[in-house]
Every structure is written in C-alpha cells, then in structure tokens.
Amino acid sequence: MKKTVIYYGSTTGTCEEIAGRIASALGVSDVKSAADFGPDAAGYDVLVLGTSTWGDGDVQDDWYGELDTLKNLDLGGKTVALFGCGDAEGYPDTFCGGMRALYDAAVAAGATVLEGPSTDGYSFEGSDAVIDGRFVGVALDEVNEPEKTDDRLAALIQAVKGL
Ligand SMILES: Cc1cc2nc3c(=O)[nH]c(=O)nc-3n(C[C@H](O)[C@H](O)[C@H](O)COP(=O)(O)O)c2cc1C
After folding, report:
1. Which residues, including other chains, have CB under 8 Å from residue 68's CB and lie 6 or more apart?
2. Residue of 63, 85, 149 best suited for mutating to test ligand 1, as the one with most atoms within 8 Å of CB
3. Angle ∠(150,154,160) on CA atoms, nearest 5
C-alpha cells in the first residue's frame, strides 16, 4: 500500500475514534490531529482526511487554520479520501457539510479525491457535501446510525488498499 496518513478534526472524540478504526483497518500508524496539519502532509501518497461538522455545516475547528495550508500544497498525483461525522436527525439541512471545505481545498491542491457514496440509504434534507447525488467523502452518523459505520467505511478502506 502507498504511504498513507490520516488527519482528523474532532471536538468530542467521535471523528478521532473513527480515524483510529480506519488506521487499524489499513495498518496505518500515522494518525494525526488536524491541528498538526502542515506542509509535511505533501510527503504522503495518500491522505485520508476526516472532519466532524459543527455550527451550521462547518468544518471542525482544528481544520480552520489549516484549510489554506491544504489548499496551497501541491498534491498533484496524490490521492485524498474524505470521511465526515455528523448528525442527520439533529442537523438534517447541513448533514456532514463540513466535508465540503476539505473537498474544495483538496481539489484546489490538485489532488485526486476518491468518490464518496451515493446518498441512497441516508435520511437527511440537504448538505453542501453532496455533489450530483454523491457525498464528496464517506458520511457517517455515529449519533443515530452507528451500526452502519463499518459498512459505510468499507468502500473507502477497500479503495485505499487498492491504490
Ligand atoms: C452545536 C453543534 C452543531 C452541530 N452541527 C452539525 C451540522 O451542521 N451538521 C451535522 O451533520 N452535524 C452537526 N453536529 C453533530 C456533530 O458533528 C456530531 O455530534 C459528531 O459526531 C461530532 O464529532 P466529533 O466528536 O468528532 O467532533 C453538531 C453538533 C453540535 C453539538
């Protein structure tokens, strides 16, 4: 497998815990907080980036200062996979919307972003993280549907393993 790092933005630990589960499944040891994101991220072939969603569809706080850093990296030829934690019942109009800021920054950096899942099987009203009927990364709802998380992560794990 290619040289892979996982960065997560997490306020109450949910996204951090998911990052750990992805790391175990991939056998990746570089798992870092978004607060520690920096230019060294460009030294990896694959970047798995996660954020929970806060405010009104916003990226988690630790990513705020780092979005410009991400945007300005040269990630041409690199792959980015995204995952997000949200609450579709509590925030149905902005479900996992924070992933969109990561997607836009990764695209601006020239990365190839792995396709996220279709919205089929999710129950929510709206999200900036949806483009043409697909999430920009794996949308997770540990608040209401934790039993679906492993299945939802499987495609990401399989795709990264296959790179
Ligand atoms: C004040 C507040 C605002 C939130 N806003 C959203 C939101 O806009 N969209 C969403 O999907 N989830 C929203 N959530 C739910 C969190 O994203 C969810 O609880 C998540 O699992 C937290 O992950 P973390 O512990 O990694 O930060 C919000 C939660 C709180 C308390």
Report:
1. 105
2. 85
3. 140
Q: What is the pLDDT of residue 127?
A: 98
| CATH number of the domain encompassing residue 83 | 3.40.50.360
**Gap between the Cα atoms of 78 and 148, Å rounded:** 29
- Average pLDDT for the chain: 97
Residues with CB under 6 A from ligand 1: 10-15, 52-57, 60, 85-87, 91, 94-97, 142-143
Q: Out of 8, 18, 56, 87, give the residue to mutate to test ligand 1, the one with the largest number of ligand atoms within 8 Å of its CB.
A: 87
Q: State residue 32's pLDDT score.
A: 98
Q: How many domains, the chain?
A: 1
pLDDT tier, 1 (very low <50, low <70, confident <90, very high otherwise): confident
The pTM (predicted TM-score) of the whole model is: 0.98
Domain residue limits at 72 = 4-161
